Amino acid sequence: MGTLWEKSVSTVLACAAVAMVVILVRREILAKPSSILQKGEYAKQWKSFAESGRTVGDPKAPISIVEFSEMQCPYCKKFHATLKNLELKFPNKLSYTFVHFPSESHLHAFAASRAAECASDQDRFRQFLDVAFQHQSQLGKQAWDWFVLQAGVPDTAVFARCMFSTATPPLVTAGIELGKHLKIAGTPTFFLNGWRMNGAAPDSQVVRMVEDLLAHRKPHPDYPDDPLKNNL
After folding, report:
1. If DSSP states are collapsed to H, E and C, what string results for 122-169?
2. Hey, which bits of 30-113 come out as E strands?
3. Residue 120 lies in domain
4. What is the pLDDT of residues 50-66, one digit of tens each?
5. No. of H helices and E strands in the chain?
6. Residue ranges of the chain with pLDDT lower than 50?
7. Are residues 73 and 175 in the same domain?
8. Who contacts 76 (Cβ-Cβ below 8 Å, separation ≥6)?
9. Domain count of the chain?
10. Are the C-beta atoms of residues 136 and 72 closer than 8 Å to each other?
11. What phi and psi values does residue 95 have, to the nearest 5 degrees?
């Protein structure tokens, strides 16, 4: 009888403990902002950030995204897909700047940034980004020549000489220095018309913000007035 009673008490206590954990976890989840936009802030000097990266698209486009990124980061790969969807949904409305911020924890990230800059010397920067993210699992497994051939780099010999250079490409250095100055803690971190967001935000949230900006609506209560004029 005593053993049965002890087992019953243990079962009740275990159930109570599980219930308490569920309540605490639920409370923690509800306490956190549901939207990544609520974690952001506006950077007044955001336009100058593009000087430290590679810009794709019309720099005078009404929507500008400046992203601190690297090619071995899985979350950056996810956000790269978001960018391509945005370009399809809002043609001629988007300018995108890639700022190199390779992580020391990713063995091939720095070399990938160098390779992207070497590809840029032959006007294949965006194409290289697309290939590197598409075949991210092959970084470090395939030779860089394999990536640049996929990206359509015309002269692989020139690319190879660039890769063997001991000098760090200026924009790689500039991106790392700016990222440290801005206390970028991880990638991707991006500024959408000055609004800072961390992580690979869901497509729906980014689309909603772009739609708000194009409609001259504030995408967040803390965003400055007259939103679209911040990029004119």
Report:
1. CCCHHHHHHHHHHCHHHECCECHHHHHHHCCCCCHHHHHHHHCCCCCC
2. 41-42, 54-56, 63-69, 94-100
3. 36-231
4. 999 999 988 889 999 99
5. 8, 6
6. 1-38
7. yes
8. 67, 69, 70, 133, 187, 188, 200
9. 2
10. yes
11. -115, 135
* Encoded tokens for 193: 């018309």
On whether both 2 and 46 belong to a single domain, the answer is no
- Least Cα distance to 63 among 215, 222, 219, 214 occurs for 214
Q: Are 163 and 122 in contact (CB under 8 A)?
A: no
Token duo for residue 198: 């961390």
* 54/97 same-domain check: yes
Handedness of CA 43, 113, 206, 91 (dihedral sign): positive
pLDDT for 1 equals 47
Residue 93 is encoded by which pair of tokens? Answer: 């409305």
pLDDT tens sequence across 34-48: 333 335 789 999 999
Q: Are residues 10 and 95 in the same domain?
A: no
Q: Are 204 and 82 in contact (CB under 8 A)?
A: no
Residue written as token pair 């007044």: 44
Question: Both tokens of residue 222?
Answer: 């803390």
CB 92 within 8 A of CB 61: yes
The enclosing domain of 171 has a CATH number of 3.40.30.10
Beta carbons of 68 and 101 less than 8 angstroms apart = yes
Q: Are residues 43 and 27 in the same domain?
A: no
Residue 32 is predicted with a pLDDT of 35
**Which residues, in sequence order, are bridge partners of residue 142?**
139
Please tell me whether residue 209 adopts helix, strand or coil conformation: helix
Please name the residue that has the structure tokens 């956000």. Answer: 79
Same domain flag for 98 and 157: yes
